[in-house]
Amino acid sequence: MTAEEQRLDSLNQAQALISAAQRPLLITHIDPDGDAIGSLLGLGWALVRLGQSPVLYCRDGVPPRYDFLPGADRVVTTPHGSTDLVIAVDCADIGRLGLSADDLSRLNDRPSINLDHHVTNTGFASVNIVDTEAVASAEVVLQIVDALGVPLDATIATCLLCGIVTDTLGFRTANVTPRVLEQAARLMRAGASLAEINEQALNRRPFSGLCMWAAGLKTLRREDSIVWAHLTRAARAECGPVQGAETGLVSFLLSAQEAEVAALFTERDDGTVDVSLRAKPGRDVSAVAMALGGGGHPLAAGCTLPGPLDEAEARVLGLLRAHLREQAEGGRYHRR
Amino acid sequence: MTAEEQRLDSLNQAQALISAAQRPLLITHIDPDGDAIGSLLGLGWALVRLGQSPVLYCRDGVPPRYDFLPGADRVVTTPHGSTDLVIAVDCADIGRLGLSADDLSRLNDRPSINLDHHVTNTGFASVNIVDTEAVASAEVVLQIVDALGVPLDATIATCLLCGIVTDTLGFRTANVTPRVLEQAARLMRAGASLAEINEQALNRRPFSGLCMWAAGLKTLRREDSIVWAHLTRAARAECGPVQGAETGLVSFLLSAQEAEVAALFTERDDGTVDVSLRAKPGRDVSAVAMALGGGGHPLAAGCTLPGPLDEAEARVLGLLRAHLREQAEGGRYHRR
Q1: What is the pTM of this model?
Q2: What pLDDT is stored for residue A245 in this prediction?
Q3: Which portions of chain B are predicted below pLDDT 70?
Q4: To probe the interface with B, which of A220, A231, A255, A260 has the most B CB atoms within 10 Å?
Q5: Is B130 left (phi over 0), alpha (psi -120 to 50) or beta?
Q6: What is the Cα–Cα distance from A20 to A85, expressed in whole angstroms?
Q7: Cα angle for residues A245, A247, A250 (degrees, 5° grid)
Q8: Interface with chain B: mutation pick from A172, A212, A247, highest number of B CBs within 10 Å
Q9: Which residues of A touch B154 (CB under 8 A)?
Q10: B207 vs A217: CB contact, 8 Å cut-off?
Q11: Is B214–A218 a contact, with Cβ atoms under 8 angstroms apart?
C-alpha cells in the first residue's frame, strides 16, 4: 500500500469504528494547549451532529484562555460512565492521556482510535491516524469530520481553527504551507472568526502580564549573543499572578537580532529559580538545561535551580558562554 | 455605475496609463512600513517584467528590516530623472509622498495613479484605486498585477506577501478575511516564503529595539480601558536609533485584556510628539487622530503634536476619555 492508500484505509477503519459507537470517550492530553482542546471539542461536536453522546475528557480541564470555545463547559476531568470507543486526540503516548491505572485497564478492551500529528507518537491504539505533516491535530480531526460526512458549521470550525492558530502561533511556525492557509480560510468560510480566536487565544494577556514584562525588561542585559533578564519575587508580587507571562517574554528576548540564545530567570516564592532558555536555529540550549538537571528541545529548554537569583544566573551564564565558545570552535574546526 | 463597475473602470484606466508609460516614477510614503516597501517593490518588479524602467522612490529609504526583499537596493531617495507617469502606493495624501515643492510642481502635469487602501485617502491622482476593504496596499497592487497580465513569480509574490503580512501583523488584525488567507496561499504557491517574511519582518528587532520597549514599558499606565506609555527623547537617545520599534510596542499595550484603546507617545528630537493610537474592534481612534490633525484607520491611527510630552499626553487622553464616554452613552442609548 502507498502512504496515501494507508491513510485512506485508516480513515475508513476509524469511520467504521465511529459509526458503530454510541457513547465514545474522547480524551486529550494533560496540560492541554489550544490544539488539544480545539481538537477535542471539534471532534465532539461532529459526533453530536451524528446523534452520538460523546464524553469529552481532559484530566486537567480547560484552561481559562480557551473558555470561549463552544462546549468548553462540557469537558469533564473524570472519565465517568461506560463507553464503547476510546478516541485520543493530540496524545503522543498513553502517559499523556492522564488516565489512572484502573481506568486504563477498564478501557483496555475497548476499540480505540489515535488522532495525532506528533512525530513521537507511539501508535498505541487499534487504529492510528498520525499525520506528522499536519501542523495541528485539528487538521487530522478535519480529515475525520470530512470522512464522516459531517458538514462543517461555525461551531466545529471555530474549535478546529483554534487548534491550527494556536499550534502555529498564528501561522508563524516554519511548517505553515499554503494548504494550511487554505484550510484556515475554509474554516473561516464555515463561520469561524479568526479575529476572535486571535484575540482570545493569542493576543490577550491581563494588564498584570504587561506589568510583568515591564519588570522583566527593566533587568534586560546583553553580553555578545546572550540576552537575559530576570523576574524577582518582589516584582512578581507587585504585578499579581499571571499564568504563562514568562513564555512570551523569553521568546521576545530571543527576537533581538544580536541574540543566539536567551534566558529568563524567574524567582519562585520558595526562593528557587525557574530558568527558561531559548535558542536560534542552529544552537542547542537543551544540553545546558540537562547539565543542570532540566530538559527540553534544542531551541527551548529549562531547569529549576536553587537560589539566590544572582548565583543561579551566574551558573547558567557560565554554561551558556562555554557552550557558545565550544560551538564557535567547532564551527572554526569544521570550516578548515 | 456600481462600485464594482467603478473599480473595473479605474483598473482599466490605470492599466491604459501604465501600458503607455516607459519610465514611471513609483513613490511610497515617508517613514515607510512593510506594506509601503513591499507594494513599491512588487509593483516595480511587475513593471520590469513588462519591459519598463521604473524608478522606485521613497524619501526615507528602505528600513534595514526590509533589506531582504528583492530589489530593496534599487530604491532611491531622490526622485531623479524624467518620468512619464507617477504611481503612488500606500500614500493617503500628497504630503505623504515626501516630495519637495519643486518636485511636486515638476511632476504636476504628468498623469498619476494612486493605489491605496487607507480610508482617509484624499484621491489626489488622475486615477485613484483606493480599496478600503483591502488589508494592505499590496492587495491593491496584486489586482493591478493581475489586470496587467503579469504572471506572479517568487520575486513579486515575496514583496506582496510582505505587505500583507506586515500590515496584518501576521494575519492578526480584525480585517483578515478568508480571501486574504487565500491570497496569501496563492502568493506562497508562487514561491513566497511565509516563514522567511515572518522571521525577517515580524520576529526580529535590533537589541536597541528591546531596550526601547523596556524604556517605554517603564512608563506603562492604565486608566480604566486606556493603556498608554511614552518614550522620551532621552530614553530614545540612550537606546540608540531604532526604526519602527514603536509599532510593535503600541500593539502590545493594546493586548492587555482590560484595554479598549492604547496610545504611545514618542518625543521626537525636535520636541514634537508622535502619537500612535490603537483600538480594539468596535472602537474608533481615527476620529481622535483626525481631530488632532492626523489620520488613519478606526483601529490604528496617529498624529503629531507640538510638545512638551506631558501636554500632548493630556490632550490625547482627554479626547480618548471623551470618545469612550460618548461611545458608552451611544451604546446605552442604542440598547434602550
Answers
A1: 0.83
A2: 61
A3: 243-247, 330-336
A4: A255
A5: beta
A6: 9
A7: 110
A8: A172
A9: none
A10: no
A11: yes
- Quick one: average pLDDT of A59-75? 95
ipTM of the complex: 0.84
Confidence of residue A4 (pLDDT cuts 50, 70, 90): confident
**What distance in Å separates the CA atoms of residue A90 and residue B133, rounded to the nearest whole number?**
37
Digit-coded pLDDT (tens) for A271-325: 999 999 999 878 889 899 999 998 877 888 889 999 899 999 999 999 999 999 9
CATH class of A3-202: alpha beta
* pLDDT higher than threshold 90 for residue A221: yes
CA angle A9, A11, A13 (to 5 degrees): 70
Q: Is B308 exposed, middle or buried (0-12, 13-18, 19+ CB in 10 A)?
A: exposed
Residue B270: Cβ within 10 Å count: 8
- So where are chain A's domains? 3-202, 207-335
How many other CB atoms are found less than 10 A from the CB of residue A217? 21
Q: Do domains B3-202 and B207-335 have the same CATH topology?
A: no
Which grid coordinates belong to B130? 483606493
Q: What is the CATH number of domain A207-335?
A: 3.10.310.30
Closest chain B residue to A281, measured at CA: B199
Among the listed residues B278, B244, B274, the one whose alpha carbon sits nearest the alpha carbon of residue B263: B278
- Beta strands A25-28 and A55-57: pairing type? parallel
User: What is the C-alpha end-to-end distance of chain A, expressed in Å?
Assistant: 47
